[in-house]
Amino acid sequence: MLALLKKTALAVAVLGSSVALGQVRLQGAGATFPEPLYKKWVTAYQAKSSQVMIDYQGIGSGGGIKGITEKTVDFAGSDAPLSKSELEALGGADKVVQIPSTAGGIVPAYNLPGITTELKFSGEVLADIYLGKIASWNDAKIKELNPDVNLPATAITPAWRTDGSGTNYVWTNYLATQSEEFKGSVGTGKAVKWPVGQGGKGNPGVAAIVQQTPGAIGYIEQAYADQNKIFYGSVKNKNGQFVKASPAAVSVAGAGAVEMMKGSVIAADIWNQPGDQAYPIASFTYLIVYKDLGNVKSKEQAAALVDFLKWAVHDGQQLSSELDYAPLAAGVQAKVDAAIATISYKGSALAQR
Amino acid sequence: MSQSSSDALGAAVAIPAVLGYKSPQSRPQRRFAFRVNSDTLLQGAALMGALCILLMLASLLAVLFYAALPAIRNFGFGFLVSTEWRPNELEQPKRGPDGKILIQDGETVMETMPPAFGALPVIYGTAVSSALSLLFAVPLSLGAALFLIRAAPRFMKGPVSFLIEFLAAIPSIAYGIWGLFVLAPFLQQYVEPKLKTMLDPVPGMHWMFQSEVMVGAHAIMRPLSLTGRDMFGGSLVLAIMIIPIITAISRDVLNQVPRAQIEGSVALGATWWQSSKEMLKFSRSGLFGAVMLGLARAAGETMAVTMVIGNNNQIVPSPFAPAQTMSSLLANEFAEASTTLHRAALCEVALILLLMSLIFNVVARWLVVGKNSRAGATH
Question: Cβ atoms within 10 A of the Cβ of A344, count?
Fold first, then answer.
């Protein structure tokens, strides 16, 4: 019986390898936010290098980090940079390469029938809305920012993301920089406890609440909002300018963070960045690989992975704005290149191409 | 492993052997030995199947328990009664025993509050949404079942029965999408405002339309915004989902009522309704079992509820406030739960849900089949 099992296993293995003959397979998993872009990258990259097969599964940042820690995937995507404990589980900062791959903004979308003017928000007002301190649209604080708009007395229904997500992470971190009270009572994280409002699952869940409920406000990824023609307002940035989210405005925020980027584990918070054009609620999303790719099967595979990363942060960036993602600024690309150059396979360097 | 694989091999051999078993009379001597052998093998295989199912359940419990262990150790019994579900750490100014903020060397002393997990809001959400859905579903289901058994003309019986069973087979995500895009806006625009204008002026009903909100340190009462995505909407979707199962089982249970019983009551001069009442009374434990099975489905239902219940981990008495159930919490948070404790707490919620469904199902089976075998043995 055992012999039979072994034979079957062998047959399956032979069959499997003959399908993938001459091909290099790479498996990635993680964040859902950049998934549409990564899928497009994979298609474009495979058209160029047909011997490479790449698969990326958007299972969530947490799942991606778990996957790379347990070495079940070759690369992981995460919306939030690795935390201290996650980094330790991966073997520490000198064993890991973490690079920003693209950036995105988060926009305050709202539903106020009859109001066609684009509303202006400040971080303080948004924090007060999500704390329940501002309960109706004609509150003096909202009026102060929008003196020309005839705001109705409609009650505000704040909508939030119930699924633990990078979007929550960025939104709460930004609001925490704007309001001490928010920092102390709601705090920051991928999942938090909200005092008021209603939760929806994912961007579509929040968008559905906003679109169906007069008086609702919700935070949505800019790419999703633009693709689905969801109305959103502008936000006051650190320099006091009201900026509407766009890939360009997010790229400006990203470029402002170049000084913060050091070493091979690059992590830079790009919310609340200075600069007149910078959109204040933005973040990078990251790709994570091991610095020594001993975890992949062969040197060819390791070389393909590095090549894909290099391609993604250079040629791939042109695809970013097509899909409403913010491309990496030139300064950021230089830092990323330096990080990719440190990747090796079982001790030998891989970077030259 | 080797033991089980040889058994499986035995079963594989036994099946063709049985199929080829044609004329026992012609070979009486071989027949006896052959029969015992195949019977034993088949019995063994059947036993294996049964054991596998038990093993699956046991391993499910064991794995969930093991995964939940960090949360069980950390929170103990308090997990079941705490209302705080906060996966993130909080930095707060430290307060002294007198409640004042501590200040040292001119700077506020900060303390980090660890994440807190308490399952009471989701247990409450599951219990109330299931109970409300039963409230909506049971009268309708029993009515439909009675109609099918006692009143339906023959040409309607078949199609209606089929449609009810078909409803049970619709995937729950379809109900969820319908709930989110059709039912919730309908409730928001027509039903809930109407209910508010009707019920709000009634003394003692005001609580239904407002909720307590913590603004900073003060709790204030605020009118609820009626969104349609709340306990009420969630329960309605659940009710629609459990109507088929309760109806189908109730129909089978009522079908088992002896004809003599019905004819007897009619002979004694009972009206249609009186004899129907007798029927319901006669099969009450079977019907209760049907309801329990509906309850088990309602408690475990995930995707449809997640889309319409509003997903707020809170205990608010009003049915028009957003809520959260155990399964919707799992659907929402499991994929991105990044800390061990968060995952463990979710696993503990899953464990509680599993044990609850197990109890519901066991009680239901016992009522439908075991205790009262005269009323309904079809399951």
Answer: 17
> Is B6's Cβ below 8 Å from some Cβ in A?
yes
Contact predicate B103/B110, CB 8 Å: no
Counting other chains too, the contacts that B336-339 makes at CB distance below 8 Å and 24 or more residues apart are B336/A60, B336/A61, B336/A62, B336/A63, B336/A163, B336/A164, B336/A165, B336/A190, B336/A191, B337/A62, B337/A164, B337/A191, B337/B87, B338/A61, B338/A62, B338/A65, B338/A83, B338/A86, B338/A164, B338/A190, B339/B87, B339/B115
Tokens of A244: 């509407």
- The answer to whether A274 and A238 are in contact (CB under 8 A) is yes
Alpha-carbon distance of B378 to B181, in angstroms, equals: 38
Residue A154 CA: distances (Å) to CA of A76, A131, A139, A140, B223: 44, 17, 10, 13, 12
Determine, for residues A62 and B338 on separate chains, whether the beta-carbon distance falls below 8 Å: yes
B216 contacts A181? CB cut-off 8 A: yes
- Residue A111: φ, ψ to 5°: -130, 100
Chain A residues closer than 8 Å to B185 by CB: 212
pLDDT tens per residue, range B180-203:
999 999 999 999 999 999 998 888
Query: Which residues lie closer than 8 Å to A80 by C-beta, 6 or more apart?
Result: A61, A166, A169, A190, A283, A286
Q: What pLDDT was estimated at residue A43?
A: 94
Report the complex ipTM. Answer: 0.78
Q: Which of these ranges, A164-173, B6-15, B108-117, B289-298, has the smallest mean pLDDT?
A: B6-15
Q: Do A157 and B222 touch (CB under 8 A)?
A: no
Task: Report CA-CA distances (Å) from B43 to A1, B1, B37, B104.
Answer: 21, 19, 10, 77
Candidate from A164, A188, A197 with C-beta closest to B337 = A164
Q: Which residues of A touch B312 (CB under 8 A)?
A: 194, 197-199
Virtual torsion, Cα A182, A185, A189, A192, nearest 10 deg: -120
Of residues B225, B220, B221, B277, the one with CA closest to residue B254: B277
Q: pTM here?
A: 0.82
Strand bridging mode B116-117 / B210-215:
unpaired
Best of B9, B112, B334, B336 to mutate (most A CBs within 10 Å, chain A): B336
Contacts of A185 in chain B (CB under 8 A): 90, 92, 216
